[in-house]
Amino acid sequence: MTIQHHPDITTLMAFSAGTLEGPYATVIATHLAMSPGGRETLRHIDTIGGALLSAEPRAEISVGALDRLMGALGDERIVVTPPDERGTDSVPLPLQQYLPGGLDAVRWQWTGPGVATADLDWGDDGKSRLMLLRVGAGRRVPEHGHGGHELTLILQGAYKDRFGVFARGDIADHDEDVEHQPIAEPGEDCICLVAVDAKLTFRGRLMRTLQPLFGM
Prior knowledge:
12 strands, Jelly Rolls, disordered C terminus
């Protein structure tokens, strides 16, 4: 698997800094579990961030602050999973908590001809949404733009649009300036992990009329 499309560098920097909202961080973590090159880029970003922090003036802390912090954490053991453990073939490790039964157990909701979605409960009531998108083999998503920031990671199959072909592990990092029409490649349904913070903006009048029914 050769990954051709990666997140924007500013998105990776936000992930490194811990400022991405849950759905976006989940998509990036899942991509990194599938992408050795992405993990290497993140390591460079982390190194630069660490150097910048080291250059900051030191802040004084009170005597015993570390002991109080460790006491507040208690005795529960914290297990950190290495980022390059991929999990199952269909569900990379960072996504397994949302899909314990794998992709075959997903309960899809019809959202248009050849298109289905499934919301993933990420445990917060913020405005961002984490979901799966399935586009039938050879089918197309109506041409649309984005009302905000959208991350789309390919988990299965592939699609093509004016930016190229996106296959397993590839990620599309789009903002409100992008309009496109993804078309699933023949032979296999395209399943994507998607994080969005606004509804799509469809160009066609019919799709704009029917959009409340689709929930996209």
